[in-house]
Amino acid sequence: MDAHCKRIGIGCTKEDPRSRYYTSPYHDLWEKGFVNKENIGPRLTIDEVNLWNQVYTILANPEKNKIVALIPWVKSSIVTEAIRKEISFEERLKVREVTLDMSPTMDFIVGELFPQAKRTLDRFHVTKNVLEDIQSIRMRSKTLIKDEELQKEEQCKIARMRYIPRKLENGETRLDFITRLRYQLFERRKDWGEYQIKRWEVLKIHSEFDEIRISYELLEKFYEIYDSKVSWEQARSLWQDWFQRISKHEAIKELQNAGRTVKNHLEGILNYFGTRSTNAFAEWLHSRIRRMISNVRWFKNKHYMLYRIMKIFA
């Protein structure tokens, strides 16, 4: 056989890397993921991570700093079947706590695989959902203000006049004011700077921003509950008081949604006050894996990269 035939792969065997039939030795790892039962422990974390446009379910042990399972899908039936094949029922009964986000799929997976474990909702995922609802209130107010400003500007153009937007007491226009509130609402009041404190004083003067003021005050109460070192029973009474405060403002739809979100997941939230466990290790693991991939950005063999991740983290 001449060199030309060998170069294009004609007559090559399946074991020859030059063959078009060649498959990577890590192909099964790419399709099925991996499970290491040696890394299982009494406390686990579960989350999802996006690698190479593929969503993976990742189960990890924060006490050993190791990955227990990395399954290339988030479908509950696929994940549970893959873990059941490798980890026996007796070993899974030893797991006492699993921290997770508010995903119903993750909750179902944990319930199926670890029936003796209590499910603790990650504090930061709960906070993120509540913050998104409060930001929705700000966005709704911003849309109304922007609509008013555009209408006034159009009227001034028809009258051949120059439109000058009204400024508030701190020198900002209403649109600038509501826009710059975005990052301020993400921060705690104790971390505010001088200009943010002045902006808040202006906000309290104008009634059009009352919904934002009420929502942020309830958010501060939300933070206080999580920061307080109380027992499970005391935490439940604090949450009930928070629900009653929210119920007084039925006109604010986004605030009611935030209250219902917390109420529907209250049992998992209350488990946090027993152990103070979070999903921080899973987030740290995500960043480490992403950094590892970005450092070899020109590396094209994704199958082998997944093998490297398994060898390092599992």
Describe this structure in words.
The protein is an alpha/beta fold. The chain has two domains: 25-122 and 278-313, Nucleotidyltransferase, domain 5; 123-275, no CATH class. The chain has helices at residues 3-8, 27-32, 76-86, 89-92, 104-113, 123-158, 174-186, 194-205, 210-227, 232-247, 253-264, 266-270, 272-275, 280-295, 302-313; strands at 34-35, 43-51, 54-61, 66-71, 97-100, 118-121. Strands 1-4-3-2-5-6 form a six-stranded mixed sheet, sandwiched between helices. The longest helix has 36 residues, at 123-158. The two termini are 45 Å apart. Mean pLDDT is 86; it is low at 1-19.
Measured as a percent range, the helix fraction is: 55-70%
Class from secondary-structure proportions:
alpha/beta
Mean pLDDT over the residues: 86
Q: Spans of 5+ residues with little confidence (pLDDT < 50)? A: 1-19
What sort of overall outline do the alpha carbons produce when their principal axes are compared? globular
Q: Write down how many β-strands occur, each being a DSSP E stretch of 2 or more residues.
A: 6
Biggest sheet strand order reads 1-4-3-2-5-6
User: What series of H and E elements makes up the topology?
Assistant: HHEEEEHHEHEHHHHHHHHHH
Measured distance between first and last alpha carbons = 45 Å
Q: How many domains make up the 3D coordinates?
A: 2
| C-alpha-based Rg, rounded | 27 Å
Tell me what portion of residues adopts beta-strand conformation: 5-15%
The largest sheet is: 6 strands, mixed
Total DSSP helices: 15
